[in-house]
């Protein structure tokens, strides 16, 4: 749903169960993951879909207009099937059917044409595949499939015209049970020109013990500074481009407990500041 500065409802869309990240493209359209109910996949493959009762989670990508109308919708499972990757959904493994093989957690729209992508493409982060896809909705084609030095990742961002950043949770499940961060979280850079992965300010993340098991966000600013959210432990951190910690915030309440932070954003452009200032001015005019 969308509300204004005075909490008045502008629109509400309950067509799907929308979840995780919400991003806007250059045209103001909204991209958001959804759980498609009912699933479009045949029941002989996935059974009767019912997320509430623990059925197959058919994550989809949805594009909404600025006023909340669905313009495009596609099952990620179906995208994988259409592009010859059905084995990712129904591999034999330990002979146990996987109810959540995709776990889409981020859609990053591409707002400009380049050597490696086109405006209108989207990057998709598939947590349970430890995989990032570059997908072209206009042709239903996967342009690039990225796997490598990241596990259970979140938050894909464009860095420039040939690099992307990936928040690597580095979360694994070992024999003693339970998910753990194997070392620390990382900000991974993939360079399309060099076909090479690297890490960004990794020593700073090690020094500050950044290790959220789930979720997490990172943003490399144009000046090279790094904004980061450590979701599970209620921390946001800001590193200068040389790796020094400029500031950190811990979401600790008066009762002494620390609470989650979720989907934090850093507002730093002139347009961002105008939006915030206009919001604050309008909020001050609300009738109480």
User: Largest sheet, described in full?
Assistant: 5 strands, antiparallel
SS elements, strand count: 21
Structural class computed from helices and strand pairing: mainly beta
Q: How much helix is in the residues?
A: 10-25%
User: What ranges have pLDDT less than 50 throughout 5 or more consecutive residues?
Assistant: none
The coarse overall form would be globular
Mean pLDDT: 94
From N to C, what is the helix and strand string? EEEEEHEEHHEEEEEEEEEEHEEEEH
Q: How many DSSP H or I helices? A: 5
Q: Span from first to last CA?
A: 22 Å
Strand content: 25-35%
Q: Cα-atom Rg, whole angstroms?
A: 20 Å
Q: How would you describe the overall organization of this protein?
A:
There is one protein chain. The protein has 288 residues and is mainly β. The chain has helices spanning 43-46, 76-82, 87-90, 202-207, 270-283; strands at residues 2-3, 9-11, 17-18, 23-24, 30-35, 59-64, 70-75, 104-109, 122-126, 131-136, 141-146, 154-158, 163-168, 171-173, 179-181, 186-191, 196-199, 217-220, 226-230, 235-239, 245-250. The strands form six sheets. Strands 3, 4, 5, 6 and 7 form a five-stranded antiparallel sheet that branches. A four-stranded antiparallel sheet has the order 8-9-10-11, with helices on one face. It has a four-stranded antiparallel sheet with strand order 12-13-16-17, with no helix packed on it. β16 and β17 form a beta hairpin.
């Amino acid at each position: 749903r969308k509300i204004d500065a005075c909490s008045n409802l502008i629109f509400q869309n309950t067509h799907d169960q929308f979840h995780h990240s919400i991003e806007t493209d250059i045209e103001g359209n909204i991209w958001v993951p959804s759980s498609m109910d009912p699933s479009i996949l045949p029941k002989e493959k996935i059974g009767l879909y019912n997320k509430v009762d623990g059925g197959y989670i058919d994550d989809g990508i949805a594009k909404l207009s600025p006023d909340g109308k669905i313009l495009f919708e596609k099952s990620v499972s179906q995208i994988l099937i259409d592009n010859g990757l059905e084995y990712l959904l129904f591999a034999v493994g330990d002979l146990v059917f996987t109810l959540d093989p995709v776990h889409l957690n981020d859609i990053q729209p591409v707002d400009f044409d380049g050597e490696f992508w086109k405006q209108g493409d989207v990057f998709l982060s598939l947590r349970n595949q430890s995989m990032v896809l570059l997908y072209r909705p206009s042709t239903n084609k996967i342009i690039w499939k990225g796997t490598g030095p990241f596990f259970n990742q979140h938050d894909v961002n464009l860095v420039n015209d040939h690099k992307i950043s990936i928040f690597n949770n580095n979360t694994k499940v070992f024999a003693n049970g339970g998910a753990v961060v194997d070392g620390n979280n990382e900000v991974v850079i993939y360079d399309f020109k060099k076909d090479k992965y690297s890490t960004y300010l990794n020593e700073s993340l090690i020094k500050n013990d950044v290790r959220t098991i789930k979720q997490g966000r990172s943003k490399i600013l144009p000046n090279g500074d790094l904004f980061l959210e450590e979701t599970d432990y209620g921390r946001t951190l800001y590193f200068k481009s040389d790796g020094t910690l400029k500031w950190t915030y811990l979401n600790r309440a008066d009762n002494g407990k620390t609470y989650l932070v979720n989907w934090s954003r850093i507002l730093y452009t002139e347009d961002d500041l105008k939006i915030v200032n206009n919001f604050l001015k309008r909020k001050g005019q609300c009738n109480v």
